[in-house]
Automatic annotation (TrEMBL):
Residue intervals of the Protein kinase domain: 39-251
Family listed: Belongs to the protein kinase superfamily.
A Pfam entry, by short name: Pkinase
SUPFAM superfamilies attached to this UniProt entry: Protein kinase-like (PK-like)
Protein origin, superkingdom: Eukaryota
Gene3D superfamilies membership: Phosphorylase Kinase, domain 1 (3.30.200.20), Transferase(Phosphotransferase) domain 1 (1.10.510.10)
Protein name listed in UniProt: Protein kinase domain-containing protein
Coiled-coil annotated spans: none
Residues that hold ATP according to the record: 67
GO MF terms, alphabetically ordered: ATP binding; protein serine/threonine kinase activity
Source organism (scientific name): Triticum turgidum subsp. durum (Durum wheat)
Amino acid sequence: MTDGGQSSQLAALEKVLLDETADPVDLPFSLLSSITGNFSEAQEIGRGGFGVVYRGVLPSGRTVAVKQLFERYDILDKNFESEVTCLAGVKHKNTVRFLGYCSETQQVLMPYDGKCVLADVRHRLLCFEYMPKGCLADYLSDASCRLQWTTRYQIIKGICEGVHYLHQQRIIHMDLKPQNVLLDDNMVPRIADFGLSRRLSGSKSRAITDHKLGTMGYMAPEFLISGEITFKTDIYSLGIIVMEILMGHKR
């Protein structure tokens, strides 16, 4: 990408960051690599089962979060597209803001069986607003970070309102846990990581899946036993989170 092209893309990202009504933008891999220091370890701020999150610094000094998904071939393009579509439609004060995405496939020379061959390398990335206070899990695992009761109430209320909004949009998060609740400067919670989320179509109130993905300890019993997905799946996870916030530590 030319310097002029990257400058215009950076300007577009800055605009989305500053304008909460703006739609997410398609971002080139080269730009996301540049603002994260080529995805350096020094910029890493989180790691999960589906990818690594990096701090991205824009020329203005503003910060964003860039999630680079692992190159897994069981994550199909249609799954990535579904997640992007879902994220683009989620706009609420208690959900993390989705700023942009990248979906590129490059051909790279790689050694194979004693010779170099051209191989497809897929890049799938998501860009979000940066949450400076980290995730809720940090405050439940560190005794020195005990939360005041007013703050606990604020966090519980915010998570409940965020889940209520998602369910109004017919979205089941499917992976609610303290690691996926981020906190802004004012300790306002934002629900994040919609990689496992499901949107129920039409008047459907349930779905069945053979893929029982999620986090043990937060997964509803009926989902573990039969793969049944309902809005109650999230409510079970929410109840565990509320209990842990009230206790001040993880179970």
